[in-house]
Design a protein that fits this description.
Layout (H helix, E strand, L loop, with lengths): L1 H4 L1 E5 L5 E2 L8 E2 L5 E5 L36 E8 L6 H4 L12 H9 L23 E5 L12 H9 L3 E4 L4 H10 L3 E4 L13 E5 L4 E4 L4 E4 L6 H7 L2 H7 L9
Parallel strand pairs: 5-6, 6-7, 7-8
Antiparallel strand pairs: 1-4, 2-3, 5-9, 9-10, 10-11
Helix pairs in contact: 3-4, 5-6, 6-7
């Protein structure tokens, strides 16, 4: 028990020095404060380093495969389709069409042809005209809680497959927002005011991403949008997995 009361003093320097004359430079401790440890602790050798100090914490990350340089999307221009509040996923793509597999090109196109087919009959103008697979409205404008309902990823995929590039809504169901970013199908942009009450279906719209604004060329009005932030590069890359490969977080797929 007496051995437990004896102590060994180690002086620790706030600015340790490194010896460069030794092939294996050792870390020396020079001045207070002091740390007292029980003397019964086993003896130890000075720490040694096999690399320059400025490289000790350098951890290499995966190297992204070379990819062609592409011009980032900076704006969208086209006609808008206006909907109201609480547009749920059943209205965006009804459950009966969820058997379609988006990874198959033919079924991806077919899924897009049913986008927003679940809207009530009060919407006289349809998002996609009869016997068509693509919409002429590249921008969807909505109100509050757009994309509420189920967590199905088919909702943003259907809009993207139909030809929509962006949705501008006052607010989103968070799962729809995340699915939009994860799939990279559409840009889920948030407005600061109720643009859905000031725009009409068919208005000619330009969205400037860099400036975070929407221009209605039909009415001549401009509206401030909330910045897309870090989600922008993920969508631009084509979704979360494409972004991870592009940035070297995961290995690129081999041909």
């Amino acid at each position: 028990m007496a051995a437990c009361r004896s102590t060994t003093t180690i002086s620790l320097s706030r600015n340790p020095s490194f010896s460069t004359t030794n092939p294996k430079p050792s870390l020396s401790f020079l001045s207070p404060p002091c740390l007292k440890l029980p003397s019964i602790l086993p003896s130890f050798k000075p720490l040694t380093f096999h690399a320059p100090p400025d490289q000790l914490l350098s951890i290499p990350r995966a190297t992204a495969a070379a990819t062609p340089t592409t011009t980032p999307t900076t704006s969208f221009h086209g006609h808008c389709y206006v909907v109201g509040d609480n547009i749920d996923t059943d209205q965006i793509i009804p459950a009966e069409y969820l058997t379609l597999v988006p990874s198959k090109q033919e079924e991806y196109e077919k899924l897009g042809s049913y986008a927003l087919i679940g809207l009530p009959a009060t919407y006289k103008t349809r998002f996609i005209e009869a016997n068509q697979t693509k919409t002429k409205y590249s921008i969807v404008i909505g109100g509050e809680n757009f994309g509420c309902g189920s967590s199905r990823e088919h909702a943003p995929v259907a809009l993207g497959a139909a030809g929509a590039a962006a949705v501008v809504a006052e607010s989103y169901a968070r799962i729809f927002f995340r699915n939009s970013v994860a799939t990279g199908e559409i840009y889920p942009l948030e407005s600061e005011v109720r643009i859905c009450e000031e725009c009409k279906t068919g208005d000619l719209i330009t969205i400037e991403l860099a400036e975070s604004k929407l221009i209605n060329h039909t009415s001549g009005k401009e509206y401030k949008l909330k910045p897309i932030g870090d989600a922008g590069p993920v969508i631009e890359a084509g979704g979360i997995f494409a972004y991870a490969r592009k940035t070297g977080m995961i290995p690129s797929q081999t041909p």
